[in-house]
Amino acid sequence: MARKQIGQHLSTEPLPGPDPDAAGPLAGLRVVELASEYAAHCGRLLADYGAEVILIEPPGGAPQRWYEPFVDDVPDPERSLWFWHYNTNKFGVVVDLDDDEGRARFRDLVASADIVVEAEPPGHLAALGIDDADLRPGHPGLIWAAVTPFGRTNPRAHEPATDLTILANAGPVWSCGYDDHTIPPVRGGGNQAYQTASIHAAIAVLVAVLHRDVTGTGQFIDVSLHAASNVTTEFASYGWLVNQTTVQRQTCRHASVHPTQTTVAESADGRYQPTGVPPRSAREFRILIDWVDDLGWRDELPEVALLELGEERGGVSMTEMFEDPLVAEIFGAGREVLVAIASRLTSYEFFVQGQTRGMALPVIYAPEEVMEDVHFRARGFPVTMEHDGIGRPVTYAGAPFVMDTSPWRLLRHAPRLGEHQDTLGGP
């Protein structure tokens, strides 16, 4: 296949990075996490970068253990791929917060911790006498992060919510979909609302750790899933709040008050191919001109003359685009040339050739293709780990980002129910 043939010249050796045997940047921090789908990704980020994260589950296990899909489609609380993904590198104990002994055990764990991450319904822990306000007097350095649908003190604090309703309420769903508005809006996949809030929580926790290093004092962090998702809408929310304008969703491009130029082409192999961002700087115009010339297509693409004009002008700006029709034409010519190239190459050829030239051009992959791509393998994204109970190794998604000196490591699979009860949570 063309995709694999073109990729053969690229090295599949992992890129040089931090010492994999070095302690993670968060080593030495202990985190107590109350199991919840809202905050699971926050706990995993902290654990993957070296924190000791103790996952507390109720008797019988967290409901997320029953989230499909399951390994080999066998329903079992120890075979949920959802649970495995979000709980790698964590330790697991069972604590019953509804009885006195369980609450005492929880207090002991929190007393030994630097950070608590929880997503309990507002007021639940306070009613049990084990909330931040109850435990902080004896532990002034404690950092407590609560992740809830609307924030603890919001008038909507007690409304039920799911990933879908958060994304719909907060705005992203309105902005996502196709030019054809007879087709319903599209929800972002992959627990997007939960992950967005978890990332905000993890960032806030790390800032609080730095603050504590200076002051010796911990903080309470109140994270709203709704607010975290809303700030991802970019100018959609601002346009409404400031100018009372409503954006319209568009296929594979930013939602806009006014329709913008189509950005998707059907590639030579029949895939739908996003064509990235057209050139704006003189250097970017030159790159695209040279690409057309190297392909031998100049005579077939008269828009190249406008690209040369853009280069002569020293580039164009988005502000000029709305004020000068010629600049708008130059910018549009860049898009037309990219669409023409994308429609004549295979999707992977377009991606590789553009990236090789320094252009930020994408390719749309199926999940299994992501794991096989030489680029992802070179950055160490697929990570294979032996897995107890199924008799074969499992490939996991690796580090979401790679840093020069801060190692990320996948050391252990998600804990079996109560796996570390004797060492961390036993009587």
Q: Kindly provide the radius of gyration, computed on alpha-carbon positions and rounded to a whole number of angstroms.
A: 25 Å
What is the makeup of the main sheet?
6 strands, parallel
* N-C termini distance: 59 Å
Which strand order spans the largest sheet, edge to edge or round the barrel? Answer: 3-2-1-4-5-6
Q: What's the total count of β strands?
A: 12
* Name of the CATH architecture of the domain at 15-236 and 405-425: 3-Layer(aba) Sandwich
CATH class of the domain at 15-236 and 405-425: Alpha Beta
Q: State which percent range the strand residues make up.
A: 5-15%
Supply the number of helical segments. Answer: 19
Broad structural category: alpha/beta
Relevant CATH superfamily of the domain at 15-236 and 405-425: Crotonobetainyl-coa:carnitine coa-transferase, domain 1
Mean pLDDT: 91
Helix content: 25-40%
The CATH topology of the domain at 15-236 and 405-425 is Rossmann fold
Give the low-confidence spans. Answer: 1-12
